[in-house]
Structure formats: C-alpha cells, structure tokens
Automatic annotation (TrEMBL), chain B:
GO terms for cellular component: 3-isopropylmalate dehydratase complex. It is an enzyme of class 4 (lyase). Its EC number is 4.2.1.33. Residues 2-123 form the Aconitase A/isopropylmalate dehydratase small subunit swivel domain. GO terms for molecular function: 3-isopropylmalate dehydratase activity. Pathway: Amino-acid biosynthesis; L-leucine biosynthesis; L-leucine from 3-methyl-2-oxobutanoate: step 2/4. Heterodimer of LeuC and LeuD. Transmembrane segments: none annotated. Belongs to the LeuD family. LeuD type 1 subfamily. Catalyzes the isomerization between 2-isopropylmalate and 3-isopropylmalate, via the formation of 2-isopropylmaleate. The gene is leuD. Signal peptide: none annotated. This is 3-isopropylmalate dehydratase small subunit. The keyword Lyase applies.
Amino acid sequence: MNQTMFDKIWNQHVIEGQPGEPQLIYVDLHLLHEVTSPQAFEGLREAGRKVRRTDKTFATMDHNVPTEDIFNVKDAISRKQIETLGQNAKEFGVRLAGMGDERQGIIHVIGPQLGLTQPGMVIVCGDSHTATHGAFGSIAFGIGTSEVEHVLATQTIWQTKPKTMGIHVHGKMPAGVYAKDIIMGIIAREGVAFGTGYGAEFYGDTIEAMSMEERMTLCNMAIEGGAKMGSVRPDQTTFDYVAGREYAPKDMAKAIAYWQQFYTDSEDAFDRIIDFDVSELAPFVSWGTNPGMAVPIDQPFPAIKNADDQKAYDYVGLQPGETADQIPIQYVFFGSCTNGRLSDLKIAANILKGHHIADGVTALVVPGSRTIKHEAEKLGIDQIFKAAGCDWREPGCSACLGMNPDQVPAGMHCASTSNRNFEGRQGAGSKTHLASPAMVAAAAIHGHFIDIRKEAI
Amino acid sequence: MEPITVINGTSVPLMKDNIDTDQLIPKQFLKNILKVGYGQHLFYDWRYQENGQPNPDFILNRPDRQGASILVVGDNFGCGSSREHAVWALKDYGFKVVIAGGYSDIFYMNSTKNGFLAIILPKEQRDILAAAPADAVITVDLPNQVVEYDGYRFEFDIDPLWKHKFVNGLDDIAITMGYEDEIEAYEARMPSFN
C-alpha cells in the first residue's frame, strides 16, 4: 500500500499500540521553554522522576524575555519563570541556551539553527508553533504541559495517528508574493479548521524552489489552519542547510540515506488533497480576529456572514467593503517564529533602505535569535532599520504575544509579521494585521498597507 | 487523577465557533508555575470590563448561571496556542465537561491528560442543550457514553483508551513506564549518524 512521508515516519516511531488507537510514539527531540515547562518539572520532582534522555532535550527562554535589556526582567512572575527554567535545567541536567547565551532565541528558530532539527524525527515542544520544524521532513507538533512532563519522564508520547493531507502548491510565485502569503491564502480559502485531525505535507514545484526559511514560514502557520503538523519532503536544500551545524549528523551520507526512506510514495497515499496555484496569488493582509479572516491586498474586506464576523469587525473597528490601505497603522512588528529569520529581516530592510517610517508609527525589530541578530549586524541590516526609525532589539517572542513588555497599546492597529491576530493577542485591545515582512515594511513607511506589486515604495 | 463516571450539572451555553485559547486564558495569566488558580481568569477579556469589574452581559457572570459544570460551545473549540492553562482554567473554574462540535487536536489531548471530559455532539443536539434553562440539570454518563436532558438521549463517541483512563483516573506516566523494556528495545534499534 502506498504511504505518505508522515505514515512512514510515524510507523518507524511506534513502540506500542494499534493503528486507530492512541499509540506510544518515540520522541527524538524535545524542546522546552520557560512558560509551559515549570509545572512539568514540578510534576517530575513530586514523583521522584528524572529526565529520561537529557541528550534529546534542549531548552531556552523566549516567551518572557525583555528585548531592551534582557537581564532587567521587571515582571516578577516572568522573572520567576525564567529563573525556574534555569534551575530546572541545572537540576535535571537539561541542555540550556540560557539568558544572554549566543544560541538563545525563539525555540523554533534555534532548533533548526543548531542542527537539532533533522529530517525523519519526531519533534515535540510545549508550543503550537512546533509545526515549524516539519519543514525539515519531520513530524513536529505542539503539546501541552502534562505531555511535556510525560515526554521528559519517558521520551515517548501517546498519540492517535492523524489522517494525512497533501497540499499541492504549484506555480511560480509572482514578485512581491512570499511564503507567508501562500499559507495565509490557503487558510483564508480553506478556513481555520480545515487541517484539524490531519498531518499536512506541502509539495509541488513551488515548495521545491523554496529555501528552508520559506518552508519554515509555511509549516509554522499550518497550525493556524488547524493542522497540528505541517511538513515538507527533505531534499538537497534541506541537507545543505543541516550539514555542518553544531548538532548535525557527522556522517551526513549515512543520515541522508536514512532520511530518504521516508518519502511519500505517491499522491494517492494522502487521505485528502488540496490544490493551491500561486501563479496569480496576491499579497495577503488579515483584517479580523483569526488568521482566516484575511484578504488579498487588492480585494475589499468581506461582507458579514455570521456573528463571528460581526464580532471581529466590532473588535477591529473596520467595515466590510473597506480595503487594507484604509487601516491606519500605528505600530509595526518585525519578528516571531514565523518571520523573524535572517532572510525575513533582509527582505524588510531592502524595502526600508533609504526610507523612514511614517510619522506616528512605532516599529519594533526583534530578530528570531541572537545568532541572527549578530549576523544581521555584520551585514549592516540593523543600521538600515535604525536609519528608518525602527527600534532594533534583542531576540525573543516579543510582541507576537506580548508576554514581555513589548505590547501593542489598546486600540492601535499593528502591521505584524507574526502568526496570530486573535483578540488581545499582542496586548489587551490591540488590533493585529498579519502580512509578509515586505508588506509590513511598506506599511511602516506609508502608515498603511500598499500593494507592493504595483505601487512604488 | 480523579475518576469521571456520571456528571449531573447545570450548564452554560457559549455557542460561538473557534473559541481560541487566548480567549480561554489570556497570556498575562500564564505567568505562574502552578497548575491551579486560573479559574478566576477564564474568559477574562469577555468576562471583565476594562475597569476590572465583571461584565454583566457575559453569560458566565449571570447569577442564574453560577455553579454550572457543563459548557456547551460551537465548533473548533480550543484552537490556537497549545497552552494547557486553558484546560486548567476551565477545570479550576468548576467545569467538568465541555460539549463542542469539535476541538483543536492539541486542546483535545490536553483535556485527556487532565481528566477534563471533552465531548463531541452535532449542532442540532447542542442547540437543544444550549436552549436548556439555567436551572436544568444535564446528565453526562461516560460509562454509557450518553448525554441526557429533558427526555433527550444523545450518544457520543470516545476512544476506549481515553475512556478507560477517565473512568479509572489513571496517570499516563505510570502506565507508560510499564513499557520500559519496549522503549529500551526501540532505543537500541535507533540509527546513529556520528
């Protein structure tokens, strides 16, 4: 019988249980951060249990970390979570990229960057954007804190195998259109729950032409369509990215041969297939309060179809029939595990170069990791952002979810390269508009979104 | 974990789709290192006004809806962030069961780990439950997999393994540790690339 990559990796990792039932799956890489791990470590301590495989576990602080002065954590409980992870890592022998460490950053950015993330793996983390790591051809998904404790203690997890969905993405990406627009376009068309119960694999000529960073953006937001896991078949682009990194395999030839056994046999192995042609795709902007409430830049906001739409319009203070260029942008956020990588910062900087952000706009640039920050500084990218009037910060999750002091003030419209536009996501009363780094950079300059395909920056 | 068998309780209807975990428990209340105390912040942004006073229009604040243990909601409940705090907040508030059209996969797994029953019923049946008066008692009978109210009888599905754990209040980690030999054997088979 034909199998998908997902089926093959899954089956390789089953320790106990039958298909259709919860199965005990082995975990190759467990990533930790300070918000969803303290109760898990406390549970281990209470039960007198150890971390079973410290060599398959890696931790960092990202959600709470201040981006101005990382060591000045003013919020007492943020500080406590950060300190608690440091103590837990030490007590249980877990590897940690701690506060100020060169390797510190958003957990989904540093996993790939350190070579921890590899094809063929099962990867979990107490964070829904773990789907990001699927870009390497792994099964990667977010888990809750009880599951974090379970994985720490046993290096395994009970899961019922999801169905598989193939997302066929094809066509040449038009200028001004990016991976972010593809995933936003898919979710806008299919809804925020189309992937629930599925593990998704993106494939097609568009995907094959993508860099690893673009593939990560795509898989990162699979969860916003309900798919707990998004993945891409590993190819030479993947192998070249992994090779030579700190935790990458030493014997790459052997590793590649192993990884290549997991390829999807043929399309008919998927339980469901979605087709998405990008050749006519336009840049997307979200108008509402979930990532599916988004339109192409050249289309008006939709009519109100139900109570949820009404509630969303009431919250954001926009009207059906208006267009994205009418949103008054007062705040701009560059960063997050979706679009906080070096290529994203380069794209934004290219647009900002020689320009200044509009009067009354506050713009924050938060690199996904300290390594990215330093690489960007070496290239002079920080200078471009600063000259344009942006605030260049230390790495972390920052204003994507505002657990640190980086919050969008109530009532303000924020053009954001992040992944969620839920009510209050970036701060109580904040209004988030998701878009690609290029679109957000152009919005920063103009104080409103523009169609970057048509208008001069 | 406390076993769950038959739950008799009053209900709160909140028939909105896509209720995300940011609404169930906003991020400012994740800053804790305990598993308890989140109930007071459940649905915070809907439940409280800007001045911190309870919003009298929100159903959870109505006097006749106090003490409810059954939450009846729309589709795709618990989408968004993986925060288990969402389940802890529902439980800590006093809810014992939620009845939805469907759940995000992560929320559902989190519910199974915390002895919080998440049931799926079709919209026609939930509409009947959502119309129940505030003082009406709804019965959720897990062993028999049925929800009963006012002469109605709605059967629901649940995976036998999850049901077994709920009914017996079993701890997952202890169960898994029974497979130590199998886990070790698996590890011995794993390839090394170094």
